[in-house]
Fold this sequence. Notes:
The complex is a heterodimer of chains A (270) and B (332). Helix content of chain A is 37%, strand content 20%.
Amino acid sequence: xxxxxxxxxxxxxxxxxxxxxxxxxxxxxxxxxxxxxxxxxxxxxxxxxxxxxxxxxxxxxxxxxxxxxxxxxxxxxxxxxxxxxxxxxxxxxxxxxxxxxxxxxxxxxxxxxxxxxxxxxxxxxxxxxxxxxxxxxxxxxxxxxxxxxxxxxxxxxxxxxxxxxxxxxxxxxxxxxxxxxxxxxxxxxxxxxxxxxxxxxxxxxxxxxxxxxxxxxxxxxxxxxxxxxxxxxxxxxxxxxxxxxxxxxxxxxxxxxxxxxxxxxxxxxx
Amino acid sequence: xxxxxxxxxxxxxxxxxxxxxxxxxxxxxxxxxxxxxxxxxxxxxxxxxxxxxxxxxxxxxxxxxxxxxxxxxxxxxxxxxxxxxxxxxxxxxxxxxxxxxxxxxxxxxxxxxxxxxxxxxxxxxxxxxxxxxxxxxxxxxxxxxxxxxxxxxxxxxxxxxxxxxxxxxxxxxxxxxxxxxxxxxxxxxxxxxxxxxxxxxxxxxxxxxxxxxxxxxxxxxxxxxxxxxxxxxxxxxxxxxxxxxxxxxxxxxxxxxxxxxxxxxxxxxxxxxxxxxxxxxxxxxxxxxxxxxxxxxxxxxxxxxxxxxxxxxxxxxxxxxxxxxxxxxxxx
Lengths: 270, 332
């Protein structure tokens, strides 16, 4: 039997354990057998990838960028979720606020999630700046309530939304997946509406160092991509992890975050 | 805002665990219902006043599916146990139904068994188990077995000691396909087995296993063991391997505190997934409690369908209750 591939991930909810046990079971008996290690934060995950303690890291977009920057680009992007492609940030405002479009946010109080969340802090400011609204044009209210998890828990986004509902902020920037989990306008039509939405970018990515031979991760990647939504046992895993299909990397979707990290001076080791 | 509260609470919970959220109105309850339906979470209890204000207890995730957790083959009604009789050539000191040579026979009878298995197959039973007492003491056990095997896959539980004369002829005439023998053997050596079952019984049981294997039967061996000494089970499995018993056909089970057993695992309807069991006295919740009046579901044996339906209904209630009862025990 080939040596197991060791995959690292961050435990941002208790359900991460059954998710990865399910994924590990899926690979059992195949050419891509794997085991997993869980970390408490993405900083440790990337450090461990670079130190060679794990073969593959299940990175957020910021963790992927951080790994690339720390290794001078010597990383291999392996695969991601279909839902990681074309991910967006939505700006929510109270119904009837009159806020519509990026420009309407100038001069307003904007609530952001944790500072290490690409979708709820870093990229909202990046895309607003591209639309002509710089950080200095707004009053920024930050909710750094799940630092280390890169926004995975959703807690800081809920804090930002709560600030809007309480009248303490005019708008909140959150990831589209959190907005979907909230029920979008279907359930929130009486209280919140989308004032603006960014263009698409990419979120999570399985990342290895480029020293990992293709024959080590290739069979695992191929088996991963073969997970089928219409197979009940596979579907359980896919639903828990929030996707319908694993896909090959869409690297163009990380360009905004590389640029944002540079412009905003985000610590490459964060 | 109830949706934000739900997301905060559910986000920190493991699947299957419970959390509480406060609601202020009927409208918030409706919103909570819609959010839970959309996200696959489950409201298991609502403690609210007339204004709709109060507390919701919410389970993270959907209710557990017993067919997934237990397996379809272990769902209530998948197996039907028939106590063909209660008399036995042995008087084991832990027998869960107090069988012995002196026990009243209480036979179900071949004709009634034929009607029961026909009805059971129509209902959806997938597998039959004939037990006792010692079924091979019945003169017509071969007829009963053939009737059962014609309807569904069947296993007969036996001590394997009466495969002589008429018993052997009956055995030889039984079908090999869709049929298995489950022979009781408690240990790799005679001492423990004979201590519970009587002197010389181990040797005869082993001879019975060898005979059944030689005649081409599938043989499952079931041991009843209270507190195995270190290495005892390993020795036993090695012994069964050498006899030629497949690994999946080596069953180890504890002693149940039922029947003649004065010590053992205490079982109740609430702690047992039912396996519908018919005796001459009625329909019971589980074969291990087939003389326990607390486990009697109904004294009416025929038609069997109402009892199968009732046990399925009671189990569904029990399963739903168990899936909502855990973890919330606030002391302050």
